[in-house]
Fold:
Amino acid sequence: MTVDKIFFGYMALVGLAGGALLVAYPAVGDFWLKPYFWVLIAVAVFDVGAVLRGQAPGSMLTMPARLLGFVIGVVALVVVPTLAGSSVQFF
Structure:
């Protein structure tokens, strides 16, 4: 399994977990840190793992892979509350 596929799965999991949190507790969406920033922070956290292992930042993933992972996370974050019928505001 490549690092890109692991990253895409990680981002899908982050998006689904964030969406489930928004369905369970809709007031969390009104917090000062908006939900789409949760996904952006998850992208940064994945890269911190590479730095801790002694690799150069950005050496693991290409920019298109990062952008696709971010899109996967945000789509999963939006789809879960939409399918649940929640009236959460994302932006």
Notes: Residues 3-84 form one domain. The two ends are 34 Å apart (CA to CA).
